[in-house]
Specification:
This protein is mostly helical and 187 residues long. The protein is built from six helices and no strands. Helix 4 packs parallel to helix 5, helix 4 runs antiparallel to helix 6 and helix 5 packs antiparallel against helix 6. The mean pLDDT is 86.
Length: 187
């Protein structure tokens, strides 16, 4: 007659049958490194300096450092917002540090491309905002409201005006997304 196995013995048998594949180990390492990279990048975005970013990356195990750096660079690039020059400068310097010698030059070159795009966006936005304000003032003038009674025109009150301003951003989004991807991937 067979003897009854304890829960412990059954668990041990199952554990012995389950082997962790190399692919699973690699996936776990990538997940761990992604989390570490995102945390390092977030600390930098929250105000830490480049030296702290360098030290945080240096604390990572040597075999994980490249994956952590890639994840941190991705997080930094993803944090960019169209037209935010100040954040752009900070992100590019962080990515340049994470990429090392070869990638730093590419990251800094992309900063110029981003700046040209940002200038184009700001110029188009300024022009469209002027058009929206003129249209708003015309509507208010027809209603008998003018002069100092009108401090500013809120484009949100008119769906067409809000959509016109959103279209300006959309017209720049594709190129912006391409630059972000280049910055994040280092290619």
């Amino acid at each position: 007659m067979d003897r009854i196995k304890s829960a412990w013995e059954i668990a041990l048998e199952r554990a012995q049958r389950m082997e962790v594949t190399p692919e699973e180990l690699k996936r776990q390492q990538e997940e761990r490194c992604a989390l570490a990279g995102e945390a390092i990048a977030q600390k930098y975005l929250d105000g830490f300096d480049l030296q702290q970013l360098r030290e945080d990356l240096g604390r990572q195990p040597a075999e994980d450092r490249e994956l952590v750096a890639r994840a941190a660079a991705r997080k930094l690039a993803d944090s960019l917002e169209l037209g935010d020059y100040e954040l752009l400068a900070r992100v590019v310097e962080g990515v340049a540090l994470l990429r090392g010698e070869g990638g730093a030059e590419k990251a800094r070159a992309l900063k110029g491309s981003f700046s040209v795009l940002y200038d184009s966006y700001r110029s188009a936005l300024r022009k469209k905002t002027g058009e929206v304000e003129a249209a708003g003032r015309a509507v208010l003038a027809r209603l008998g409201v003018s002069g100092e009674a009108v401090a500013a025109i809120n484009p949100a009150v008119n769906r067409e005006w809000a959509q016109a301003l959103e279209a300006v951003a959309r017209s720049h989004e594709k190129e912006f997304a391409r630059y972000k991807e280049e910055l994040a991937s280092g290619s």
